Structures are given as C-alpha cells and as structure tokens.
Request: fold
Amino acid sequence: MRHGFPFATRGMIVGLLGGSFDPAHEGHVHITREAMKRMGLDQVWWLVSPGNPLKARQPAPLEVRMAQARRVMRHPRVRITDLEARLGTRFTADTIARLQTIYPGVTFVWLMGADNLAGFHRWDRWRGIMEAVPVGVLARPGAGLRARLSPAAQIYGGNRIGRGENLARARPPAWVFVNLPMNDASSSEIRAKGGWHVRDGGAAPGS
Reply:
C-alpha cells in the first residue's frame, strides 16, 4: 500500500465522508457513527479536502483542519485522511475513480448529509458519482424536505432503497436516506460565532 494511504483489503466496505471540515465538529462525528452502525461499514475515511471548488472562501490550512479532525473524531475504525491532496484530485468523481483503482475489491460508499444532497446536482459529474458507488444520505437539521425534493433525489427516485436493505451490496445507482437523531452542529455557524480560528500556526477554539 502507498505510504500515507489507509489500509483496506478486498471485500471490505469503506464509507467516504468528504468535506473541508472547517472545522470538524460533533455533527460530523454523529453522522459518521450512525453511518457505521446503520450501513454495516468496516471503516469510514474522512477525506479532508485541500479546498472546495464550489466555495469562494477557502478554508484554514489543511494540516490545521486535519489536527482538529483527529481531536474530535476518535474511533478505531475511522481514518482521518488527506487523500485528495495526495492524489491531486479536486473533484469527488475523480477521487472515487482513483480510489477504486488503487483498492480493487473494496466497496466504497459515499456518505453525505442531507444538506449536500439538496445541492448535489451542482457537483461536477454528480451523475457519475451516483453511477459509480452507493450513496448514503444522512438527515441534517432543516434539510430533509429540500433534500427529498432536490433534482438528484427526483431523477434517481427509482433507485432509492429501503432502510432495511444492504446499501453496500446494492448495485449503483443506489442510495438510501437515513433519518437519525439530530445534531445541529455546523461548521459555518461555528466560524460565524468565533468558535474556530487559526493562530500561531495552530487551531484554537474561540472564547
């Protein structure tokens, strides 16, 4: 296995949770733990991105966000990674394609909050993502209706599977919407309230 890449073997089911994690917070932890519990995942990899092509505002330095992510997410089956920086990919479709090549026989499941499903149709080659891997959508506060009425949900409505079905064993396109107890933590709200800033090369919570 390449240096700096997580270890996974043929037959494993790995959930991928991507984002800027600016900063990582309990909401990310909550949906990660719920996804592992409800989707039968062997591991979850957090893909801490170098930057989000859809956002004009660029995040805190990658090493700072990685360190914060490791502080808040402590679980033996969760890996905090900078794989997109290592792979040189900017878009999710490219990242997934590269990982499927590097890890033959590993089943990847793309994880996202319902707020991301609402705008999923604006992602680069979003249909290709749906066709490449199963997608697990986890409820987020205030986003349920928008997510269910989104273009992606409407176009792929016939590919939505029931909660009792095994998402990882479903042939893409396949997706599931999982309702779960809410955790309303938000990176943007934490930043707006001054709960996250960078100083002296490190991350610190606001007072």
Notes: The beta strands are 13-19, 43-48, 78-81, 107-113, 135-138, 175-178, 197-199, 202-204.
